[in-house]
Design goal:
By secondary structure, this protein is mainly β. It is 0% helix and 47% strand. The chain contains no helices and 34 strands. The protein has a four-stranded antiparallel β-sheet, with no helix packed on it.
């Protein structure tokens, strides 16, 4: 079977005469977590009558909301999974055909999921109580990532324009378009935390630094330059509330910034996806086939240790055990995930979570995953399944059949997948 390379698996962004291939763009993620990962066209029509559940694989729970469930996005269906029972309890299929998905993002009250529909460059709004698509919002071309800096707005990034489309969460309309990238193009992300007030910090693979975004006036208010170069940009980002320091991937290094003074305070000689633990004490950084764990309470970004996990780690998530902190990372080059004892800095278990598509010639691969309800959930698009790993028991408890191509998941509830360990 021939499978196309989607934007989440293989993102190519032109930067002058060069092409940069980006890996690990989930966010959510997305940061989120990522990454998970890792946001002028308004749509004021009510589409609640145009979309609905499929008639297959449904039961009487379809009117009971979605708390504790997982939404799994596949080309022709959005499957709603009960991870405790390891089964699909409902599906949304009407109006969906051969879809490609970008970031999903859930509102702070868990009442709606916003998810990027890559073609035709839209954001779909899903009501988690009724389990229905209730709106379609047109955004700029090449959307990949989306962010929720405040309760009233979702910010969807258009990579082809280097802009954020701001969606009002009440009206489901685009109310502002924010020019972020210096060159009006480029794959970008947004870093926000309540410590920043009305300011956010963007990244863009075309820009040698960080655009500063005024979230109230909806404009780029400043730019923190990292270097005077044309062929290097910024990508991953994170923030440690304990130290007040922000971290930005810049080429093969991580630039540490004091946001309050907008000053560079350090440069670390490694770079990759960054994931803060739920207690905000530890930050894991994907570095090749290893994961570096940093002390997120240290102003010097002291390194706690390095764990070699091998085979393309991605989608790092955490679980707080009774007496230890554990992390789990899904691998892109095998069908496994590794569970790490962060305190002992060692892999304590590997579990089979299914296989993903690996297109020939793709220099980077991405595998999504989320945490929630004590589970780690990761899709396997080659197998058409979603793996449910019990983090307490450190074992795979279910591989739920969905559909070949399923590659994106969103947990309804507290998942701790934000790039600063919180929802945002």
């Amino acid at each position: 079977m021939e499978t196309s390379i989607d934007r989440r698996r293989f993102v190519q962004v032109a930067t002058g005469s060069s092409v940069i291939a980006l890996a690990g763009c989930l966010g959510g993620n997305g940061d989120g977590q990522e990454e998970n990962g890792d946001d002028d066209h308004d749509d004021d029509h009510d589409h609640s009558d145009d979309h609905g559940h499929g008639d297959d694989d449904t039961d009487d729970s379809s009117s009971e909301g979605s708390e504790g469930f997982v939404y799994a996005f596949a080309p022709n269906t959005i499957a709603i999974i009960d991870p405790e029972d390891g089964e699909v309890v409902d599906e949304i299929t009407a109006g969906l055909s051969d879809e490609g998905w970008g970031d999903p993002r859930i509102t702070a009250d868990y009442s709606e999921i916003y998810v990027i529909r890559e073609s035709p460059s839209q954001v779909l709004v899903i009501d988690t109580e009724s389990r229905e698509i209730v709106d379609e919002v047109d955004v700029g071309p090449g959307p990949t990532h989306m962010y929720h800096p405040n309760d009233d707005e979702m910010w969807a990034h258009s990579d082809d324009e280097g802009t954020f489309y701001v969606i009002d969460t009440d009206s489901h309309e685009v109310t502002e378009i924010v020019e972020s990238g210096l060159e009006n193009e480029g794959h970008g992300k947004l870093l926000y935390h309540e410590d920043f007030g009305s300011t956010g910090y963007a990244t863009n693979v075309n820009d040698p630094g960080v655009p500063v975004i005024d979230l109230e006036s909806y404009e780029r208010s400043d730019f923190i330059e990292f270097d005077d170069v044309d062929d290097q940009g910024t990508h991953y980002k994170a923030y440690s509330p304990e130290t007040g320091l922000a971290y930005f991937e810049f080429g093969d290094e991580t630039v540490v910034v004091d946001p309050e003074n907008e000053e560079i305070v350090d440069r670390l000689d490694f770079a990759g996806g960054m994931y803060l633990s739920p207690d905000e004490q530890v930050m894991g950084v994907l570095d090749g086939d290893s994961i570096r764990f940093l002390d997120a309470t240290s102003e010097d970004s002291d390194e706690l240790g390095v764990v070699d996990v091998g085979e393309g780690p991605d989608a790092l998530r955490y679980h707080e055990g009774d007496d230890a902190l554990f992390a789990i990372t899904a691998h892109t080059m095998t069908d496994e995930a590794s569970i790490i004892d962060v305190d002992e800095l060692e892999v304590v278990e590997t579990v089979d979570i299914g296989d993903i598509v690996r297109p020939d010639g793709a220099p980077f691969l991405h595998r999504s995953g989320v945490a929630g309800g004590g589970y780690f959930i990761s899709p396997a698009d080659a197998d058409g399944t979603v793996a449910i790993v019990d983090m307490g028991a450190q074992e795979l408890v279910d591989n739920v059949d969905v559909e070949e191509g399923v590659d994106t998941v969103q947990y309804v509830g507290d998942s701790g997948v934000g790039y600063s360990s919180r929802l945002r």
